[in-house]
Design goal:
This protein is α/β, with parallel strands linked by helices and 389 residues long. It folds into 2 domains: 144 residues, NAD(P)-binding Rossmann-like Domain (Rossmann fold); 201 residues, Rna Polymerase Sigma Factor, Chain: A (Orthogonal Bundle), CATH 1.10.1740.10. The chain contains 16 helices and 12 strands. A 7-stranded parallel sheet has the order 4-3-2-1-5-6-7, sandwiched between helices. Strand 6, helix 6 and strand 7 form a beta-alpha-beta unit. The longest helix is centred in the C-terminal third of the chain and has 19 residues. The termini are far apart. The chain binds nicotinamide-adenine-dinucleotide and magnesium ion. Nicotinamide-adenine-dinucleotide binds next to helix 1, helix 6 and helix 9.
Amino acid sequence: MRRISIFGATGSIGQNTIDLIARAPDAYRVVALTGGQNIAQLARDARRLKAEIAVTADETLLDALRDALADSGVEAAAGRAALVEAATRPADWVMSAIVGAAGLEPGLRALEQGADLALANKESMVCAGPLMLRTARAHGGRLLPVDSEHSAVFQALIGEDLSAVERVIITASGGAFRDWPLEDLEKATPEQAATHPNWDMGQRITIDSASMFNKALELIETREFFGIDPAMIETVVHPESMIHALVGFNDGALMAHVGPPDMRHAIGFALHYPDRQTLPVERLDLVKLGQLTFRPACETRWPALRLAREVMQAGGLMGAVFNAAKEEALTAFIARQITFPRMAGIVEDVLTRLSSHAGHNVDAITLDMVAEVDHLARVAARTVITGQA
Ligand code: NAD
Ligand code: MG
């Protein structure tokens, strides 16, 4: 039986992962499930899957979790230290699906004990790509992309020589506001931004899809994951979200990955890699689909895309600066402290203030260095947001 842990089990990716695991209960032994405030869901899944331990990130909810798990035989724990401890428990395959930079350390700890890490948490690669790759290599675990675009690129590259790759095209749905007049964005609410035309995802990534900060993170993730030169990475708006990414080779061939917008494909691919197994995803009827459309990804509408290029150019720890500033700006938008278009301005301002973190020797970066820069960027972002600068 394969030992499985799921970090961020109560979220959108976590629940899709559980959907797949629960279909083959005899194939897996669940070690750890973690969540946040949704104790009922966490306890229900931990009981159902007979997990060894359930952890809530919220220390104040330990008693609630203990009560919910009474007489179940599942261990209950709470807080950041418990989360990290759970990641050190031996497992064969670990899903990293916490949202934000908070997912970095548990994923790293899982890699350190030699697990294969299925990486939905794109922030890990944006903040500390070289550290993730180095840790996986050192301990023999595989790093498997779960972001649909990166799973698509990964699959298109199987059996190929990276030196024959000419370009990588990452598609973007365009999110909730792709057809809005630019001047209306000032009035956009968090609720409007959190409605995705195609994908059903967590609130934060859905708003990041509307601003294209999600795509910006994914461009950096592509660079880090596959070592692709930033000049070879393109974005195109593809409203139907059926083609997830394309890889172009030096003979002109473009290999596209096509499938319905259902994360269980990418999760299942990472779960069964290197095999392919039957997955419960819809089979596309191309005739019914009729046509697929594409539009340019306008950097005036989505300045996050330009910022991502600047971050890739700057290198060093600027990915961690970018992500932390974005997380703070997003939190402020959700709290209605700033307007939707203001998020990009705040991130740009923080990138300028912390530009000295560019160009470090990235091979030598450590978790402490990333944590320090993350902290500095959050402080700077809050200073800009509250206008104290
Ligand atoms: P979500 O908001 O639905 O779930 C997030 C999970 O993380 C929950 O279990 C929550 O309790 C937990 N969590 C949140 N903050 C935490 C903290 N500080 N410490 C510990 N746990 C915490 O998010 P999601 O949509 O499932 O996305 C998870 C990750 O996967 C993100 O990095 C996202 O970018 C990535 N991703 C998601 C999708 C998708 O379809 N949802 C697709 C590609 C990539
Ligand atoms: Mg994606």
